[in-house]
Structures are given as C-alpha cells and as structure tokens.
Amino acid sequence: MTALAGRYPRLFAPTHWAWGGIDAAFTVTPMPDELVTNVHLVGFVGADVVICRDAPGHWFLPGGTREAGETVDACLARELVEEAGAELAGPVRILGAHDCHDPKPEPYRPHQPHPRKAWLWCAADVRLVGPPTVPDHDAEPVEEVRAAPLAEAAALLAPGGDWLPDLLALAADTRP
C-alpha cells in the first residue's frame, strides 16, 4: 500500500466529506461486505471514462447507496442503469474503498452500519445503452452522461474531491 499511497497521494490522504460530515480514508484492504453502504464505478468505454452531471452542474461517477439486502453486484448494475444508462461490458475490479466514520447519531438509512461504513470504488468496461432511468423520487436527477477522455473526466470531477483524479489514474493504470 505504501507504493500506491506514494503514487496516488491525494487518494490515500485522509479526507472530510463536508456534504455528509463524514471522515474517510482510502484503503486497498478489502472491507467486510456488511460495512459497504455505497458502490461507485470508474466505467470505461474504450479509453474514455463515463461521467454524469446532475441538475446543479456537479460531475460524478455513477454509483450509489445499497438497498436493504442488495448485493454489491446488484447495486452496481442498478446504479449504472439509473445514473448512466449503462451496463457492464466486462468484469468488475475492486480498486479499494473509503473507510468512513459518520459522527451523526443515526445511520443514513436504518439498514446501514453505523458509525463505521465503507464506500466501495470499482472499475470495469461498460456500454452506454440508453438514457439514465433515475426514479422520480431520487434526489439527484441526471442531466448529462458522457464518455470523456481521462484528463477531461479528471478535470470535471476534481471539484467534487481533489482525490478523484488520483482514483481515475489508479483505475486507468491498473486496467488489464
């Protein structure tokens, strides 16, 4: 892990997600399934990365919160269709996870672990097959989906976390 931390220092630096009040640290140590609350994907279409833009104009990687009893694979497949109108076109690789501590008194959803949880980050080849199918009750309507060159995707995602360009680089550098 030391070599990876040296190569991707922003990714491995402890971070605070102000939007959720969550402290997080990236690790490549496998996280127990019962701690994984969220699953996100660096999806590749050729050499390009699939990114999504919400109504306020923020760019993000597709993924989201696991439903009660949902497997990681099922969550990933559902979130890809909902947020990116995409489907898997190859095997999923786990890049690592953010090991998170949530100081709020209650979990985000009743079925989730608390106060410790994990956000899983994966990579895979995908196909864009149609428009996003985000349910009407979802708080994050998707306005745009695109497959962008790595550098462009990194620049568009960076305002969401200075570690995101390092995550993209890790995904690209470890592609088979």
From TrEMBL:
<dbReference type="InterPro" id="IPR020084">
    <property type="entry name" value="NUDIX_hydrolase_CS"/>
</dbReference>
<dbReference type="InterPro" id="IPR015797">
    <property type="entry name" value="NUDIX_hydrolase-like_dom_sf"/>
</dbReference>
<keyword id="KW-0378">Hydrolase</keyword>
<feature type="domain" description="Nudix hydrolase">
    <location>
        <begin position="34"/>
        <end position="171"/>
    </location>
</feature>
<dbReference type="Pfam" id="PF00293">
    <property type="entry name" value="NUDIX"/>
</dbReference>
<dbReference type="InterPro" id="IPR000086">
    <property type="entry name" value="NUDIX_hydrolase_dom"/>
</dbReference>
<dbReference type="GO" id="GO:0016787">
    <property type="term" value="F:hydrolase activity"/>
</dbReference>
<protein>
    <recommendedName>
        <fullName>Nudix hydrolase domain-containing protein</fullName>
    </recommendedName>
</protein>
